[in-house]
Design goal:
Length: 625
């Protein structure tokens, strides 16, 4: 089951065998990740995309000037240019550098990084320093040994032009060239756009070397046929959702297979997705410090990359490609990709060794211009750890953590069975068993009290579990947690009112009766709404529309039972009224008549069986999620 990492848990796991080594790997990975430096918020915040580098704090990309977007730089001619106001300079001079769109279009850009380099060694560190002319749109970065040796954007808004001033240092090289990386969209950018070379006065310029702008992706081939589940558990390991599905015949099948091949492992990933399909290898069932592999749709292509996740953050795409024999296929909303990687990759600290055991995550979601957004449903997580290069297995997994399944189970037991039966007994079954007692109290009262006390206990326990899992309030759960808090408050209020209730003969008793009935009714209505919303929470998505139909059936069933018993009481009342003219006597006596008791017992038995049926149907859905 998924657990929240407390300090004690962290310490315990750290002391376990191999945990310290994994921690060192994580720290080493943090130091060497080529962060998604120019990762821009190309999508609006309303899409709930994960945090990106729209603030321009991209010092990790100073050397390569390449954004870690997982896409190669555009091969089209750059619509942007970088110009200078001087051809010759002396140390100490101030040179105005302008980045802008081409004169015949004036195309805007969202992100940029400008540096000055030694023209004879353009792949070395940045030199000199800059002075800002527009602090609102630009900021200084420290690249190399000089402060303020680079300039980047401060926000994601479009810009048509950017001007800065470069201060030539006293140890300026004979020739200087300015380089700019410009991001138009997340998957559309140009790296190291060069300016004209400027040279020092009275100094012979050395040979000028061209800049290098190597792409980040490996050319991929097209798959001609869909993947097949044939051989799962025999020649390859498979993780599938739904269990036993075949991507060759089922377009809704989420599928991952992997098989050892010499010193490498071949992976096949398939799933219905609007933007991307991915899987991750993890030491635990909690997202963070994971080895991630992404198949991202970019227009009519699929870009395949390895990445790493530090905490619950955006995956950082690897600056080096460790994937071989990449291939992909797009068909009817299904993304399929295939690649091979070595079991050991000593040069990449963020890649896990495939001869070790990991939990496997499968996730998918939207992508816009190649920028992936938060997965639209809870990832499918393997039920146990699996050695990736080990013997073939047919794996099973779940999209819902055990702690959330327990939350849903307890809430359904409380609000479909215990509270419903307790309410109907208090409302219609007081006259039953008039001469019998249970622990010194009338049977109906004891049964009602036991069922309602069980409801309070189950609700309180269930209420705590999501907060324990999330470590706090969930901002993405919509109205469900608000309704849950309201239900809990009303549930606790009910026994408090019952404890303070006046004597049955008190003149104020009717106030308690109405408040007790009203509070309970409101609590049940809100609880039903919370159940409908809870059935489609990301952490516990029950099958749709079957789960909605079952809940709707329960509501109709409960209302029908109440109406039937109300009509039965009315029938007894009318029958008693026609038998005598003393209406008050009838009102006081009809409830004591044993006539109709058999009918009520039959209705109660059927009602309890029906509630149990609806509960079992929903619990079965929870079990198989």
């Amino acid at each position: 089951s998924s657990t929240v990492r407390s300090p004690n848990n962290v310490l315990f796991h750290f002391l376990m065998s191999g945990a310290a080594a994994r921690r060192l790997r994580t720290l080493h990975c943090k130091m060497h990740l080529d962060l998604a430096s120019l990762l821009l918020v190309a999508a609006a915040l309303s899409l709930h995309s994960v945090a990106a580098y729209s603030n321009g704090k991209v010092t990790e990309s100073c050397k390569s000037m390449k954004p870690g977007h997982g896409h190669a730089s555009s091969r089209k001619p750059s619509p942007y240019s970088i110009t200078v106001d001087k051809e010759k300079f002396n140390p100490g001079d101030r040179i105005t550098v302008t980045l802008s769109g081409s004169s015949s279009g004036g195309k805007s850009f969202k992100g940029f990084l400008i540096e000055a380099r030694d023209a004879s060694h353009p792949n070395d560190h940045a030199i000199g320093s800059f002075t800002l002319l527009n602090p609102h749109d630009s900021q200084l970065l420290n690249c190399g040994t000089s402060e303020g040796s680079a300039v980047s954007h401060t926000h994601k808004s479009g810009k048509l032009e950017m001007q800065v001033v470069w201060n030539a240092p006293s140890d300026s090289p004979p020739a200087v060239q300015f380089l700019a990386t410009v991001v138009e969209h997340y998957d559309t950018y140009w790296v190291k756009i060069p300016s004209p070379v400027i040279t020092q006065n009275n100094v012979s310029p050395p040979p000028i070397l061209p800049t290098t702008t190597n792409g980040q992706t490996v050319p991929s081939t097209h798959l001609t046929e869909p993947f097949s589940a044939e051989g799962c558990g025999r020649i390859k390991s498979c993780l599938r959702d739904p269990v036993g599905c075949d991507p060759q015949t089922d377009p809704k099948c989420y599928f991952l297979s992997f098989a050892k091949k010499d010193v490498s492992v071949v992976f096949e990933l398939s799933g219905p997705a609007e933007g991307y399909a991915s899987f991750a290898l993890s030491y635990d069932k909690w997202m963070g410090n994971d080895d991630v592999y992404l198949c991202v749709r970019s227009r009519d292509n699929v870009v395949i990359n390895s990445a790493y996740v530090l905490g619950r953050t955006h995956p950082e795409v690897s600056s080096e490609s460790s994937l071989m024999d990449t291939a992909w296929r797009l068909s009817d909303g299904v993304i399929q990709c295939k690649f091979r990687r070595n079991i050991h990759i000593p040069t990449e600290n963020c890649r896990f060794n495939l001869d070790e055991s990991y939990y496997i995550f499968l996730a998918s979601g939207k992508a816009e211009n190649g920028l992936i957004h938060r997965h639209h449903q809870q990832p499918l997580i393997s039920s146990g750890k699996k050695t990736i290069s080990g013997p073939p297995e047919d794996l099973i997994g779940s999209r819902s953590p055990l702690i959330i399944k327990t939350h849903g189970t307890l809430m359904l037991i409380a609000w479909i069975t215990t509270v419903s039966i307790g309410v109907i007994i208090a409302r219609f079954y007081k006259p039953m068993w008039p001469g019998s007692t249970l622990f010194g109290e009338k049977i109906w009262f004891q049964v009602h009290r036991i069922l309602m006390a069980s409801t309070v206990l189950l609700t309180c326990i269930a209420f705590i579990l999501p907060f324990a899992y999330r470590g706090g309030w969930s901002k993405k759960a919509g109205a469900h947690p608000f309704l849950g808090c309201t239900v809990l408050a009303l549930t606790i209020l009910q026994p408090l009112m019952a404890i303070l209730r006046p004597h049955p003969d008190s003149l104020r008793r009717y106030i308690f009766n109405w408040m007790h009935w009203g509070t309970g009714t409101v609590a049940r209505i809100i609880a039903v709404a919370a159940m409908f919303l809870g059935a489609h929470q990301q952490a516990l998505v029950l099958p749709s529309p079957s789960s909605t139909l079952v809940l709707s059936g329960f509501v109709v069933w409960d209302v029908a039972a109440h109406l039937l018993l109300e009509l039965h009481n009315y029938h007894l009342f009318r029958k008693g009224k026609n038998a005598t003219d003393d209406e008050q006597e009838i009102l006081n006596s009809y409830v004591h008549v044993p006539e109709g008791n058999l009918f009520k017992k039959v209705v109660l038995t059927i009602y309890i069986c029906g509630n149990a049926g609806f509960l079992i149907a929903l619990l079965t859905d929870i079990y198989f999620v």
